[in-house]
Amino acid sequence: MSAASIVRRNWLVYWRAWRSSFFLSVLTPLMFLSAMGLGLGSLVQEEGAFGGAGYLKFFATGIFAASCMQSGVFSATYPVMGKITWQRNYEAMLASPLSVRNIFFGELGWMAVTLAQISIPFFGIMALFDVFDSPTAILAVPIVILLGLSCAAPVFALTATLQTDEAYTWLFRFVVTPLFLLSGTFFPIEELPAWGRVLAQATPLYHGVELVRQFTIFDVGISALWHVAYLVGLLTAGILVGVRNLERRLLP
Amino acid sequence: MSAIEAPLRPAAPGHPPPSFHRAVKIVRRNVLAYKHYWIAFVSGFFEPFFYLVAVGFGVGQFVESVPFGDARLEYASFLAPGLLAASTLNGAVFDGFFGPFFKLNWMKTYDGMITTPVSIPDIAVGEVMWALIRGTIYGVGFLIVMLGLGLIHSWWAVLALPAVMLSSGALSAGAMVLTSVTKQISSLEKVMTLVVFPLFLFSGTFFPISLYPDYLQPVVQATPLYHSATLLRSLTNGELGPGTLWHVAYLTAMFVIASAAAIRQMRKRLIF
């Protein structure tokens, strides 16, 4: 009995609906890339503005990272709150030999599986659109999984302190959506005013997007280390606070 | 008063038509329920605004201009009315589909309501009215933002508000039809990915439909959001033509047909 049994539990629940989940996770990137990459992209005149990569490649790599951030954040909101408050699955789990720590790492492990299940089809669709320039592109998949987990862990820590889901409206509308749109996903952050650039550089999505672009369409630089360090640091902080918060919430 | 007197009257033969007074009760019920969720209400306004900033201005500055009618538009002026139309779609999905889905299938709110003098047509009309009111409030907010950012180029834009209301009404009624045929919670995600998301991306919201191959253009022209986006775009940019009336006719017809269908389907779901 360990974190792995939590992952197995979630797998059993998921297994019932995998076909439609898989179908949807292929369709979403396909639609995004056709509409924004090909459609809007064909209107873009100054190709040079996007690091010389062209709008399709620029947008595809950005939205790849942004989708995984969004999915990571989501997986640590309603599903986790449901298991804490509404369905009380965690209480039942704690009646078994599992510890709070097992639950936390088990859920995080399952989030990694979910992220892989989203990012691998997405990666495949991007390959079909001929986005990748370099064989290091394959590393974009573990990068976005790391990004997703780095965003999920702090949100997990937040969820452990919440009594109702009201805060999520704030989280999605005023944190996730602006990050999604403004962290260099749709257009380079150099276009933002100076204060906006500083703000964008402080967000995990910016670091994730930069990393993905370095490994897929630009050259890998020394700054990659800093981006990885940022994401790992955020993940570690999220885990430390998250385990503590969840222990406070679940243990008497 | 009418609510109290209603049960004393002899039952009308066939199906009674919806009553405005009783439909307003449904709206008032939603207002009361929403008092606790006012943040969700206010925050709904920001979504199209963020998109406008990111895509309209962020990406838009790399776009030269977009052909529309006889004119060429700055990208932000092209996109903003499209986002306004998309926000009526979002509102319709939220108030005409998600909300009613839970009330119909999970919370059984409607089952409770029909044991009162409120009838099924009242519920359908009330929910669409509520969606329309919300859509109108968001529409006003977004039009003011557009005015402030210099994205309104014509006095015809005065008519954009009734156009937003028409679009809200038509799409909400359509969403209610969808609600009445949906039973599984997993269908919500499918509807979002297979209906709402493609409409949002491909209805000429982000780029003109002239970019599609010839055989795809009629498909896009058959979707409601295309008509709503093009109508609003004509009004805010002052590029009207005979086609404008056709958009109005399409949305009006959709409103009438979808409302009738929603009432019919809801009756089937709730009574049998």
Structure description:
The complex is a heterodimer of chains A (about 250) and B (about 270). With about 250 residues, chain A is mostly helical. Chain A has eleven helices and no strands. In chain A, helix 2 (about 20-40) runs antiparallel to helix 3 (about 55-75) and helix 3 packs antiparallel against helix 6. Chain B has about 270 residues and is an all-alpha fold. Chain B has a two-stranded antiparallel ribbon. Chain B is globular, with a radius of gyration of 20 Å. The interface of A and B includes residues 186 and 187 of A.
What descriptive keywords fit this protein?
heterodimer; A: 252 residues; mainly alpha; 11 helices; 0% strand; globular; B: mainly alpha; 12 helices
Report mean pLDDT of chain B, rounded to a whole number: 88
- Count of strand segments of chain A: 0
* Largest interface in this structure: A-B, 33 and 32 residues
- Number of β-strand runs of chain B: 2
Please outline the major beta sheet of chain B.
2 strands, antiparallel
Binned, the helix content of chain A reads over 70%
N-C termini distance of chain A: 22 Å
How much beta of chain A, percentage-wise? under 5%
Helix content of chain B: over 70%
Shape of chain B: globular
The percentage of residues in β strands of chain B lies in: under 5%
Structural class of chain B: mainly alpha
What's the oligomerization state?
heterodimer
Rg estimate of chain B, integer Å = 20 Å
Strand order of the largest sheet of chain B: 1-2
Poorly predicted runs of chain A are none
- Describe the sheet with the most strands of chain A: none
Shape of chain A: globular
What layout of secondary structure does this protein have?
The complex is a heterodimer of chains A (252) and B (272).
Chain A: H1 3-15, H2 18-39, H3 55-75, H4 78-86, H5 89-94, H6 100-128, H7 140-159, H8 166-182, H9 194-201, H10 204-216, H11 223-250
Helix pairs in contact in A: 1-6, 2-3, 2-6, 3-6, 3-7, 3-8, 3-10, 6-7, 6-11, 7-10, 7-11, 10-11
Chain B: H1 2-5, H2 20-34, H3 38-43, H4 46-59, E1 66-68, E2 71-73, H5 75-106, H6 109-113, H7 120-148, H8 160-180, H9 186-202, H10 217-221, H11 224-237, H12 242-271
Antiparallel strand pairs in B: 1-2
Helix pairs in contact in B: 2-7, 4-5, 5-7, 5-8, 5-11, 7-8, 7-12, 8-11, 8-12, 11-12
